[in-house]
Design brief:
The protein is an alpha+beta fold. It has helices spanning about 1-5, 20-50, 65-95, 200-210, 220-230, 230-235, 265-275, 300-310; strands at about 105-110, 115, 125, 125-130, 135-140, 145-150, 155-160, 165-170, 175-180, 195-200, 255, 260-265.
C-alpha cells in the first residue's frame, strides 16, 4: 500500500534509513483515524435516515445496555492505542540514538541561513554534502531565534534552539539532491531559508572534501579558541593555577555538582558550562568561571565543544 502511494508520487521519495519507519507509522495512523472517522459518520448518516421524525421506525426508549459490547469496544480501543504508542516509541527511540561511529557535522541556524562545518574544517552555507550509506549525526544550535532543520526525503526534522544543543541523525541511502527547509517560522525571510542536501558516492564525496583551501579542523579551531581565551590556565593538568575541573575525559562522564546532584557531561552540559557557568557548579570548586555570552558566537562554542570532546580520547589528549 505504501509503495503504491509513492508510485503515484503522493509523497517525497524515501532517501534515509528512517524514512520507511516514519512512513509506516504515518500511514497506519492515517488509515486508523480515517477508518474510525468514516465509521462514525456512516453511523450518524444511517441513524439520521433510519430514525428521522415521521418515519415508521420504532422510537421506543432503550431501557437496557450491553456490558459485553461496552467491554469489547473499550478493550479494542485500548489495544489499538497501546499499539500506536509502542510503535511510536520504537520509532522515536530509533531516531534519538545515533550510532557511535556516526559522522558528526555541526549546524548553526541563523537568520536566514544554515551554516555547516565538517570535522576536517570544510564549511558550507545552505548546503550539505553527505556520503551515501554513512550514518550522520548533526549537532545543532541557533544564533538568534528558533529554527527547524527539515529534510523531507529523509523524514527528519529537529529544532535548532538558541542556548541549547540539539541533534538528529540519519543514514542517507540513495545518492541524489534533496530539499532542505527551515520548518519553523523565524522572521521576515523565513521562506528563503532553504538549501540542498547532496548525497554522494564515496569517490565523489572524498573529492569534494579535498576541493578546499587548507583549513584547520574543528578540533584544531577549538583548541586555538581554548588557548586564546585562557581556558588552558585553569582546566588542564599542567595549568599554572588549576582552579577549575579538569576537562580531560570529562565528556561522557558523570559530574558531581556542589548540591550533590549528578549530571551527564554531554554537549548540552559543556555548552552551559561555557555560556552559563553558574548553572552547574562542580563540587569542590569556587564559582569563579566567567560567562562567555556575548564573547563567543554559537559557532565558536560548538568548536570549543569539539575540542573538549577530543580530550576524552587517548589519541588526541595532550
Amino acid at each position: 500500500m505504501i509503495d503504491l502511494l509513492f508510485w503515484i508520487e503522493f509523497a517525497p521519495e524515501r532517501a534515509s534509513n528512517l524514512a520507511e519507519s516514519v512512513d509506516f507509522l504515518f500511514y497506519a495512523l492515517l488509515l486508523i483515524c480515517g477508518g474510525i472517522a468514516f465509521a462514525v459518520f456512516a453511523l450518524i448518516f444511517g441513524f439520521c435516515i433510519r430514525y428521522y421524525q415521521g418515519s415508521k421506525g420504532k422510537h421506543q426508549k432503550r431501557t437496557g445496555s450491553s456490558t459485553k459490547l461496552e467491554i469489547t469496544w473499550m478493550l479494542a480501543a485500548l489495544i489499538l492505542f497501546l499499539g500506536i504508542f509502542v510503535s511510536s516509541a520504537v520509532v522515536y527511540i530509533q531516531m534519538s540514538q545515533p550510532p557511535d561511529d556516526a559522522y558528526e557535522i555541526q549546524i548553526v541556524g541563523k537568520q536566514w541561513m544554515w551554516k555547516a562545518q565538517h570535522p576536517n574544517g570544510r564549511r558550507e552555507v545552505n548546503e550539505l554534502h553527505l556520503l551515501v550509506d554513512q550514518p550522520v549525526r548533526l549537532l545543532m544550535t541557533s544564533q538568534d531565534v528558533i529554527h527547524s532543520f527539515y529534510i523531507p526525503a529523509f523524514r527528519t526534522k529537529q529544532d535548532a534552539v538558541p542556548g541549547k544543543t540539539t541533534q538528529q541523525w540519519f543514514t542517507p541511502t540513495r545518492p541524489g539532491e534533496y530539499h532542505l527547509f527551515c520548518a519553523e517560522y523565524c522572521g521576515m525571510d523565513h521562506s528563503r531559508m532553504i538549501g540542498k542536501v547532496h548525497v554522494m558516492e564515496a569517490a565523489d564525496h572524498e573529492r569534494w572534501l579535498e576541493e578546499t583551501a587548507e583549513t584547520p579542523s574543528l578540533v584544531a579551531t577549538g583548541q586555538q579558541l581554548f588557548i586564546e581565551h585562557g581556558c588552558a590556565g585553569c582546566h588542564l593538568p599542567d595549568a599554572d593555577q588549576q582552579q577549575g575541573p579538569l576537562l580531560q575525559n570529562v565528556y561522557g562522564s558523570r559530574v558531581v555538582l556542589s548540591d550533590q546532584d549528578v549530571v551527564m557531561a554531554d554537549e548540552q552540559y559543556l555548552y552551559d558550562a561555557i555560556m552559563l557557568p553558574q548553572k552547574h557548579l562542580v563540587a569542590g570548586y569556587e564559582p569563579i568561571m566567567p560567562t562567555y555570552q556575548n564573547v563567543l558566537s554559537s559557532e565558536e562554542v560548538l568548536q570549543l565543544i569539539a575540542y573538549i570532546k577530543s580530550l576524552s580520547t587517548a589519541e588526541t589528549a595532550p
